[in-house]
Amino acid sequence: MQERHRNRLMYFQEQATTTERYVIPFIEEVKPLHEGMTILEIGCGEGGNLKPFLDEGYPCTGIDLNAAQIANARRFFAGHPHEEKLTLIERDIYDIENPERYDIIMLRDVIEHIHNQERFMKFLKRFIKPEGVVFLGFPAWQMPFGGHQQICISKVCKLPWVHLLPRKLYAALLRQAGEDESTIQGLLEIKQTGITLERFERILNKENYTVLKKEYWFIQPNYEVKFHLKKRKVLPLLRSIPYLRDFYTTAGYYVVTG
User: N or C: which end of the chain has fewer CB within 10 A?
Assistant: First the structure.
């Protein structure tokens, strides 16, 4: 699993495939795509989630703080037939004044990395067109690998639920396993920002978002691309149990409007 995170082109391609096969159809059930729509991805990384939209000629914008990943994105998209329709911005989203508004905003595997998600979801409304939608997909914090420990180079990468250990014990385990300090600090930060399905839905309610569509995945669609596992939804009875469902929901998918 960690190889995919080191090989950024592989990760880019997996993102593109998952978004093309599963995310776009999910969005189109409530927001059909049509000519002239504009797409924004926040926390775009290399922009893999934007590629299927750009392939069809939609104007796309990607914003990310990571300079190296934005540089990779420019390299990966060099020579694309619609390269002129792609805008890549290396910037903090909060530093953008008077932003453009978009028809579709993508946040896939991003919200769980953001500090103060309440502030972010309130700020996000500045970017949404009146009839626009936001797609959010993220792993529930308590799911087996909700701490993103799969990025580790040690055997910790294969330990489910290890991220739920107390902070000091978790950090000690990571150091004992030989993880470098940057990885440890990154995983401890996710321990701060990881978000449950319940808390996320409370934020949506507080900020007056309307949920147009949602799904809880037992085996999320991206696992078909990465691990060749057939995607499966959480069974109705199991999805109805608050808090417990976070332990076996590998991803929540939402389409919302503000």
Answer: N
Q: Are strands 60-64 and 39-42 parallel, antiparallel or unpaired?
A: parallel
Structure-token pair, residue 227: 């691990």
* pTM, entire model: 0.94
Q: How far apart are CA 197 and CA 72, in angstroms?
A: 32
Rounded to an integer, what distance in angstroms lies between the CA atom of residue 82 and that of residue 79? 8
Whether 101 contacts 129, CB under 8 Å: yes
pLDDT over 90 (residue 162): yes
The residue count for the chain: 258
Q: In sequence order, what are the beta bridge partners of 214?
A: 254
Q: Return the exposure string of 7-19: e unless at least 16 CB atoms fall within 10 Å of the residue's CB, then b.
A: ebeebbbbbbbbb
Q: Is 214 helix (H, G, I), strand (E, B) or coil?
A: strand
Q: How many helices (H) and strands (E) does the chain have?
A: 11, 8
For the purposes of burial, counting CB atoms within 10 Å of the CB of 27, is it exposed (0-12), middle (13-18) or buried (19 or more)? buried
133 bridge partner residues: 104
Indicate the pLDDT class of residue 1, thresholds 50, 70 and 90. Answer: very low
Please check whether residue 155 is in contact with residue 112, taking contact to mean a CB–CB distance below 8 angstroms. no
- Number of other CB atoms surrounding residue 28 within 10 Å: 12
